[in-house]
Design a protein that fits this description.
Largest sheet: 8 strands, antiparallel
Radius of gyration: 18 Å
Structural class: alpha+beta
Strand content: 25-35%
Helix content: 25-40%
Number of helices: 4
Length: 167
């Protein structure tokens, strides 16, 4: 009997230990402790922990300059949102204020998106999503049972934002 119990415990431990512990199914979301650190290596460290803000929980990084020079800068920010115990939405928010380096700024978003996709979905940015990011065009895609969207806010404006979401 002890051998059967030990075998059951061992099987459960193996089932729970999986490389890429941050990735999860579409229904369950991501562990907040893991998801909030998805962009740490890219310099987008979340601050204040995963905490309640209104009716949701979230963690977010400060805005980081990606292209500067002059009175305005282009910036990027990472956030993770969801319920108390699960992150259900990941977001990279790019603000384009300095128009002189738009392509370079969009490439920064593409590179950050590729890192986020690797950690959250287990694969990099597809060529279709990469093309949309570099062109700054809105779109929606289904990837690994998740909805990925890119929005341009406000559309057609001189200063705008690109929001890349994984839900």
């Amino acid at each position: 009997m002890n051998r059967i119990l030990w075998l059951h415990v061992l099987c459960m431990a193996v089932a729970l230990w999986v490389p890429g512990a941050g990735a999860a199914s579409a229904e369950s979301g991501f562990d907040p402790a893991v998801a909030c650190d998805f962009m740490l290596e890219e310099g987008l460290r979340t601050r204040g922990g995963y905490r309640q803000v209104g009716s949701m929980y979230q963690c977010s990084s400060q805005r980081r300059n990606v292209v500067g020079g002059g009175p305005v800068n282009n910036t990027i920010r990472f956030s993770a949102r969801g319920s108390e115990h699960r992150v259900t939405q990941l977001e990279l928010d790019l603000r384009v204020n300095a128009r002189g380096a738009v392509q370079r700024t969009h490439r920064v978003l593409r590179n950050h998106a590729d890192s986020l996709f690797q950690r959250a979905l287990g694969s990099g940015v597809s060529s279709e999503i990469e093309t949309a990011i570099l062109a700054g065009t809105a779109g929606q895609w289904h990837l690994n049972e998740r909805l990925v969207s890119l929005d341009r806010v406000p559309p057609g404006a001189q200063r705008y934002g690109l929001r890349l979401r994984i839900e």
